[in-house]
Amino acid sequence: MHLQILDKVILQIFLIYQMILLIYSQKYLLFPLISLLSLNLFSQSNLIISKSLKNDTSQVISSLIDSMFVDNQNLAFALMNDLGKPNPTENIEQTNQGSRPPAEIVASFDGLGYGFKGPQGQASYRNPSDNSLAVGRDHIVQIVNSRMAIFSKKGVKYDVSGQVLYGPVETKNVFRGFGGPCEQLNNGDAVVRYDQLADRWLIVMPIFTRLAPRDYEPTAGKNGEPATLNIPGRSGQPGQAEPLFIPDKPTLLELAEKDSLRRIRRKSQNPEGGSYCMCYAISTGPDPFGSYYRYEFARPLFPDYPRPAIWPDGYYVPTSTGDNIIQKHASVVEREEMLKGNPAKELSFIIDDVNFLNNADIDGYQLPPNGAANIMLATGGSQLNNIFTDDGIYAWKIKPNWTNPKLSILEGPKKIEVTEYHYQGDGQLKNSVPQPGTDQKLDTQGDKIMSRVIYRRIGEQQSIVAVHSVKTSLGGGGIRWYEFRLDDHQDITLFQQGTFAPDSLYRWLPSPAMDRMGNIGIGYSISSQDVFPGQRFTGRIAGDALGIMTLKEAVLVDGEASQTNTLRWEDYTQTAMDPSDDLTIWYVGDYLKKGSSSYSTRIGAFRLQKKQQ
Question: Which pLDDT score, from 0 to 100, does residue 323 have?
């Protein structure tokens, strides 16, 4: 009996040791400890020889990697979780490239922008590009400001990614027949998400024109007050779901006329006293050419920079009153009812004296604990008050109560101590990033978390990943990134942090993702006096040394020219997880072609680890 127990103990220790060797390809301090333990256990004084009772051949260990990572109880994650808490005062700047090979680029093609042609011809574009990208099972949808396109995605339905199936068209096409400002006005800053939990497309379009006064004009809420309901904009909405409108290819004269109308509308005075609004279109299935339910909600405050995030109890859409006032809106729309095509509610909290807000957006298919509040993050400091540094990231918990909206919860902010950072470029709308052959520098939006905040659950592990642009010691700009963890009470703490700045080049406007293995990938813009603005990508493998982007930088596209017509650059890039494998990370950002008068966009797909066959 004692021999059998000892056999099992030795076997378990040996298998654990082999698993750690498999996961950690480099020699960490962990190995000597385990090696000493193993030598002691297998020393001659403790060695007992017994005959085997059963023999077979095990499954190939490499085929077990996926399950090892998905199960958070495995030893690899447990050991990494116990390696020690990050020190918020330490120097976390990574000044060299990672040692692992770069991420595999599995797709790369041009999206909307200069030179783009599709079934609906060509279009003109304006700066900044405000890139938005969503990826479904067979399609890729891109929105750049007020233009939209649909591409094929390699898989079951198509043999290749990047074939232009639709576009460029005005984003308001999805609201055709709905009536009101959503159908009539084609505004910029529209964004798209793919709700992988429901296999639906979500398109969100703000209306920046102050509308004529309604008979039921809403009153803006105030900081510290309970949530207020936003008034539905259309009677009986959503009405019948309607298929995506496919317009004919416009003539050059029609394009010129539309461009003139847009310029006139931008210069015209808005009516006094009216509100703005937010428009939503939610598809009835995974086909972006299929039918959509449409909604409009009146917004009393200017709804700038909508950043939709997916959560079980709502689509969370934070917005900003403007660049010259420190006021944000934490809004949520009733996801469950929208998916059914029923009348839905939208509510908003008003928060003063806070930087740009972003809500946690679910990557993958594992849901947060039942009833969990969404987490909302912001950087510290205040550009308008000339405060460019801070040593905290600030977190709120937000949860709607759809039965009684005034009982909706907003808790925070809670300060999470991090290593001190300084806004890259001292914030937004400043000449910051140099380019070759011109005195025109580019804006970094360095005062805020600009891209989506990632929520990923792997077993019992709940991670939140956020990034922003910071100054670096080498004189350029770097990517500050964080992985936070949520405990059993859904309280947020810092797990690891780093600043990716391997040289003196400027890296800015990052966007992150976390795949189902727990690997983190980040895409971003890059430029310097000697390097034209382009797009690159780095990442790390779950279980690598904390605080390090361990993959060498991958080049999605090198720029071929400098942007000389404006300092505004992108405003944001965007990542999207591929719902087909939950491993492939899609990304979009800007670059300029040689001789071009405006930006092009490049869409790429990266894989941090090879897929298991």
Answer: 73
